[in-house]
Amino acid sequence: MSGHSVDTAGLEQAVASALECARRFGASQAEADASLAQGLDLSVRKDEIEKLEHHRKKRLSVTVYFDQRKGAASTADLSAQGVHTTVEQACTLARFTAEDSYAGLVEAEALARDIPDLDLDYPWTLEARDAVDLARRIERAGFAMDARIRNSEGASVSSFRQSVVLGNSHGFLAGYSETSHSLGCALIAEQGGQMHRGQWFTVARDAADLEAPESVGATAARRAAAHLGARKLSTRRAAVLFCPQSAQGLFGHFIQAIQGGSQYRKASFLLQAAGEQVFPAFVRMSERPHLKKGIASAPFDAEGAATFDRELVDHGVLGGYVLGSYSARRLGLPTTANAGGLHNLLVTSTGAEPLHTQEALLRRMGSGLWVTDLMGQGVNGVTGDYSRGARGFWVEGGAIAYPVHEITIAGNLRHMYREIAALGEDVDARGSIQCGSVLVGEMTLAGQ
Amino acid sequence: MLSVSTSRADPLAIAQELILRPSGLDGRLEGIFGEVLTHSVDFADLYFQLSRRESWSLEDGIVKDAGASIEQGVGVRALAGEKTGFAYSDEIILPALTEASRAARAIAVQGSERGVSAWRTRTGHQLYLPADPLTTLSAQDKVAWLERVDREARKIDPRIVHVSASLMAVHEVVLIANSEGDLGADVRPLVRMNVSVLVEQNGRREQGSCGAGGRYSLAELVSGEKPLELAREAVRQALINLEAVPAPAGSMTVVVGPGWPGVLLHEAIGHGLEGDFNRKGTSAFANRIGERVAAPGCTVVDDGTLARRRGSLNIDDEGTPTECTMLIEDGILRGYMQDRLNARLMGQRPTGNGRRESFAHVTMPRMTNTYMRPGPYDPEEIIRSVKRGIYAVNFDGGEVDITSGKFVFSASEAYLIENGKLGAPLKGATLIGNGPDVLTRVTLVGNDLKFDEGIATCGKEGQSVPVGVGQPTLKIEGLTVGGTAESGAGA
Prior knowledge:
The complex is a heterodimer. By secondary structure, chain A is of the alpha+beta class.
């Protein structure tokens, strides 16, 4: 299904005609992007097909500038008439917005010139019945893993291919196609009147790089069953070990705080913190946008700026911010080609402190809370105050004592970042932030 | 006031004129169903949607962003047993619709030919006017109102360092046809304004935000100078946060204020009572109809029929008129929220809770406006009854694990209660509890039912839909408060 050819020529045509149309309407600058996404999403529950969804969606977005007044519009109608109407609408809106001296396209010199092939496009000719077989294998392996797995929210297989084309009035016009395939599963373990959910997924550009379906099901089953018998904890102070998935969230708050928008709006607990020791000296964070087959790899950002390798944190010191051209101009800095987000942030360790195995981290913690799941908002991006719901395991003597739930962990992110004691080698590479487990110092745990 | 000419006031007439006529599909829907029904499906439906959205935003005292978008398309769904086949097209034309229909029917085997011969028009409620809210205010006025909000906020206090405000309006027209011959339509206006301010004092920065909206026009949203009220409220919250001290940690008595704190019900109770989770037995509330899940005096309903509210719908996204569905009656679990698929599989009746984010998403049972009915107690009396605890009046939102029943929600405005009196404002008060037992710990229900201001969005399986919540002041014993202050535990 996802093997259908994607019509990039049609997208280029729509972008080029939108830019031409904007010029004729008198816009001083314009940017347009068009995308076409198509794919298949299948879920099987208790061995039967639950849902089979076919997706095919296109979009054209146009931004126009009349000197420094901006207007934007978007549509799914890529016909000549649709393009014309959309551009006209953006131009109409731009008559009413105010002059903003920072508004405008990304600087021409920042634009990508050569578009590297990052090996992102691996169409998967997956027929629905093959997808059903895969999903059944996932779920059956989960049920077989542990007799206490009594219910299922289903196993899923999805395969998507997207083509994007971006152009602007500096003369930039480029595009690429990328694929994303995934297998997932959510199972429910039951015992002694308790029900716990466990889930797992694997995602890759190339279906050949996916985890085996049996392994996805078995991991989901283990993660559900491990929480059976969960208790509450009494309120206390304790060290906390974040599993890689929870740690991704922890670093996600960091990225949010150093984003240009949070900086120029002063809505950050890391305001103007570039050059400061935010993390311990062994922490390094590197952005690597050109990783072959990388889940968050991209040759250029959402404005067409060439992406590039950089060290965002070196020896624990914040090296810079996460900027698109607008926030960059607000801060008097060059863009970091992060319009639309980060491209593979790798959290690693340097110097004296190596990456540890999960067992070593548990031993090092001695006693404390191993967090496997976090819930709720509870993060104040302006102050760094942090208080979230959690479940996981109470650890004593470096080993799991029992599962725990219905507790909260609280602290302040600035303090938590400084108190990172060690990083794990169990890196989760499924997202734009790739990191392993993170051991932090004491936090407040609230329970019964 | 708005004027709506009578010929345009019927949602079905509007939908046919805006969606079917331009695409040449008028009178051809029967043929589409003929395509789907060549396979042995139990039920099929078509969901046509045309949405126009406009948004304006201000910061640094100027309106710098304005955007418009048009979304249109048609979703085709086929149901066979527990199976759902789904496809859609963002082009409302016959060939695309035929292709989508063939893709959707593929979950079922080929069967006998059937068709739809005659249409029954299903009329819904008239909870809001079938009007376009975008055009009720000129572009100049939209800009001017945002600028007034900015000036109003800034003049209150010199500690304000940043103000942002946004205005959003959607005009959505949907037409729903199904294989049983039902034809329904709805025209759904939706507007919203949000204000956010940042204050700074001695190096400490804090935020406050506020918003309002519903299913009415932009002209009504700005009537009575409501936007200025929002500006003042955002500033008030930010200034309170400047004085906030760390919340205590541990299990304690919590008084939850009226209105928006009803997010407690949405998370702790609401999601767990959606039909799909109960049919599959994955909810902590599964198979508990008739059991006590709340203290006597607690009655919770999901009501999609409240006039002009954000969570309300004349008909749901399957064409079923919305209802006031009894979920918990005087503490006893009475019912679930259902869409057609789950209702049929559970031998129940659809309750008008079948919703979807757009034509490109499948329908699920979702909440509309979920609230608790008022009780007898004066809210001040409730606060006076607490020796030591917290009073939480504003929230950032929450999350629930419907299987374990654990829910969490974070207070953005809360106060310590000591000896029946409100004390210092608190920061970082996240509350965590267990859905099936939290309402059994309710000891006092206030007489002050209020609804939220109309800005809530609920997410489920990647789909967002507008919802509402409400409740009177509630006193809950033994809720875990996740602060950082040492003193709170066990006090």
